[in-house]
Fold:
Amino acid sequence: MSPGQPTPPTPPRPPSRDAAWSLLCEWTKGEQLRKHGLAVEASVGWYGEHRFGISGPELETWRAAGLLHDFDYERHPETHPIRGAEELRRLGYPEELVEAVLGHGDHTGVPRTSLLARTVYACDEMAGFVIAVAYVRPNRSLDEVDVHAVSKKMRDKGFARQVPRDQLVKGAEELGIPFDEHVMNVVEGLKTAREVLGL
Structure:
């Protein structure tokens, strides 16, 4: 850069983890939905760091996308996550994060064009399902959850019936990761938050 040339503006940093957590708690009063946000944050963060080599502010963005993907659900279940995306844009969250939030469910029709969006989609229902499997293990522990346990419960249509089985499979496919490997990656991600999740 030549002397006298203006310094290009520094891109704004995404809001901090503390700010993201405060936003989730402000909009979400239910403990279970907060824990779900923490679970998806842990899984998405694990993928970003350990599978895709992401670090620094970008990893913060990944973790925030997982934490906040459902933050508007209690207040606006009929327009979730559209209303939440509007608020995230207003607060200055990166567009990549907003698009990942918009794309985490098939009902919005928003295409998942980024790796972050595909990761949030793949971790959302899988994190919830893995936790449900852990709850029915003898010691309610993630250490007792493996691919066999998850696959067996997937075949049980009465178990966690609200979880769409096709999305569990589709998420892994969109990431280009074998299903069995994806299950264990999510388990490892959840273990990083096991104390707060009680697992």
Summary: Residues 31-51 form the longest helix (21 residues). The mean pLDDT is 92. The domain at 17-194 is CATH 1.10.3210 (Hypothetical protein af1432).
